[in-house]
Prior knowledge:
The complex is a heterodimer of chains A (287) and B (493).
Chain A: H1 2-15, H2 32-39, H3 42-48, H4 53-84, H5 89-100, H6 107-118, H7 124-131, H8 145-153, H9 161-172, H10 176-184, H11 189-218, H12 221-227, H13 240-250, H14 254-278, H15 282-286
Helix pairs in contact in A: 1-14, 2-14, 4-9, 4-11, 6-12, 9-11, 11-14, 13-14
Chain B: H1 2-20, E1 23-24, E2 34-39, H2 65-76, E3 80-85, H3 93-101, E4 108-111, H4 116-119, H5 129-132, H6 145-149, E5 166-178, H7 179-186, H8 196-209, E6 217-220, H9 225-234, H10 239-242, H11 253-261, H12 270-282, H13 295-300, E7 304-310, H14 311-319, E8 327-330, E9 351-360, H15 362-367, H16 370-381, H17 383-391, E10 397-398, H18 409-426, H19 438-441, H20 443-459, H21 464-486
Helix pairs in contact in B: 9-12, 20-21
Amino acid sequence: MLVFSYYPPINSLILSFTDxxxxxxxxxxGFDNYKxxxxxxxxxxxxxxxxxxxxxxxxxxxxxxxxxxITGNAMTIFLAELLYNCKAKILSKIxxxxxxxxxxxxxxxxxxxxxxxxxSANGLANTILKAFNQDPSLWYFSPDFMAMLAIMLTGxxxxxxTSFLIYLAGLQNIPESIKExxxxxxLTTFKRIVYIDFPYLAGQLKYFLILGIIGGxxxxxxxxxxxxxxxxxxxxxxxxGFLLYDLxxxxxxxxxxxxxxxxxxxxxxxxxxxNMKRMKTTEDMTA
Amino acid sequence: xxxxxALLLCLTLVIAATGCGTRxxxxxxxxxxxxxVLDAGGDIGNFNTTLSMEESDxxxxxxxxxxxxxxxxxxxxxxxYVTINVNSMNGDRGSCKPLLANGTAPDILYQNGGVIYNDLxxxxxxxxxxxxxxxxxxxxxxxxWFDLYGEEIYSTQVSDGGYYYLLLERIPVGIAYNKNIFxxxxxxxxxxxxxxxxxxxxxxxxxxxxxxxxDRATFLTTYQWYDIVLESSILSSxxxxxxVLRKNGSVDxxxxxxxxxxxxxxxxxxxxxxxxxLIQDKNKYYPTNWQTYDAFNxxxxxxxxxxxxxxxxxxxxxxNKSIDxxxxxxxxxxxxxxxxxxxxxxxxxGTAGLATAWFITNSAENKGTVDGCVDLMMYLTAPQNNxxxxxxxxxxxxxxxxxNTVIADYLTDLNDIYVTDYAAYKQGKRTLWASYNTWxxxxxxxxxxxxxxxxxxxxxxxxxxxxxxxxTKQFKNNVIALxxxxxxxxSKW
Lengths: 287, 493
């Protein structure tokens, strides 16, 4: 535990106050790395042609995390509800397998499918635009918000295999007596979902929101595989995780990269604590 | 309990089997011999033994020549045995750097040669300069090992005077073109463009021929190699005055900074400005939304007329069974003084110089295997062995091919042109590949900024004026930073 779980973050904290170029040692430079992140400096400007690239990366990652959590959880709960309410049990089972089996497709393959088939020059997305007499877009390579939109749309309908199963299990665990009481009280399906299902799924939702925050703030796989910080000097798709990777592995600025790691850590911790305090679980309600 | 025990046993066996499978060598790791661990990556393809030696669609290039040569070398050097890692890291910096920093990298490690500009001063690599000055005992026809490589090896010397990697091959570079499209546009007796002006006319004609067909395109690249050619051609008039500290036909980082410092080369001057303009001009027939246009696959489909590439690109194309048209490879068209008055010497064509840099690492120093590694590299670069090592891989050109060397069909034209052009270089009529490549010499930050800015310009989001302003500003900043960082002895300037 000490070696694998505690040493790396403590070492990162130390490195973030140095000018380390190799991840092992460096001169102590106080808060210079943090100042450069938030107020700009030569390393950031040279590489990204911008002094505000870190701010942009924070804004981008917050947008992507929030949108990702909303779309991912809403669509997954929606699907779980559909299958939970499906009268034909055999069909329900078949659909369950069909949605679960997509877990077997590696994430990188999924990304490349979206890049090649959907968001390429003559891909599905531009074909749809052309059908409506609209100019084709650069999608991932747009210098503007279209690049972020393309990232958000990637993976549609955003139905995660594992979370879908957990939400479905949560729905199946709602006591029959509660459901029957709802029916006797004349609840419509919509009201039943809002007043019975959602409160009972609060535990699962809380779990996935925490995982969403942790995963969302750290994620940069699409940027690494497809478009980096964004096309040209736009930095349209830059996120802190990518900056961390790029500055350390490609740019030899381990000290600066460690400072980014610390900021991500503090953000993740803060948002997780906030989420823990704000969200009530089933147990809390029962108590 | 039994089930738990069986599970643990299975896990242990799996882990043991995985560990055993990571490396391959021909003998049983005798304890009285020294081990040389080799990461056999390459710029064109790696040198690992393929799973099968049977050629098939899934395995178009069966290969085991490196292993064979290592076995032969082991027989000559019984104090050593060579372990070739099954999977090369292929120069992945995320994997290589921690190993180098901790002294646990393979004894011989493949990386892109350009990493030395970032790693200088880390003491991760052995300076092989003193060895290159000796004779290669497996190639006694050359007075020194340097001579085996020709003058291009001198351009790998870095500003501290050291040579930190050894090279295995020459990397073919040029433009693959669709012969059917050329016939359709220019007739049966077409000729490929030999000058930049002809190249632009060729692009114009193809572009007009396919006007209105969104899938069609004239010329695209997957990296900016032609920009390197154009820059060295334009700045060739500055080479004599710049290449003075280590006179070898190419300008290195210190020489570039000295040239700027002494006013020999001015990044804000007309010559460099004409280079930026030329990049914009060259790319003006790019298709709309070219950033999302898959150049390689569109060439395969017959939509793209010309595709810039290296030996790796051509090798992959040669194995692609879905190509239903004739294709060939042409060298880069020369930039002449008629187009650009500064381009007094075009570059050597056919190859992008020496390639596949193998570094002897600090691990070899710690283990005491440096002499063995050097001897092995001498063996692999000796013509009689190198011709097999590179020729069998069918992607690169051996260091010193002879009439018996088998070079892939699609590379022979490029090799012939290289031989002719190199002779012209020796007569002072051409300059070496990347002999004045500022955006590599000034480090990774400037390279990134240069590429990003020229992308902005090509996509039309900024003007050439703005691009020039941004690039020159970055240029000057990086010159100042590198001068301070490297503490050059300016008294020698």
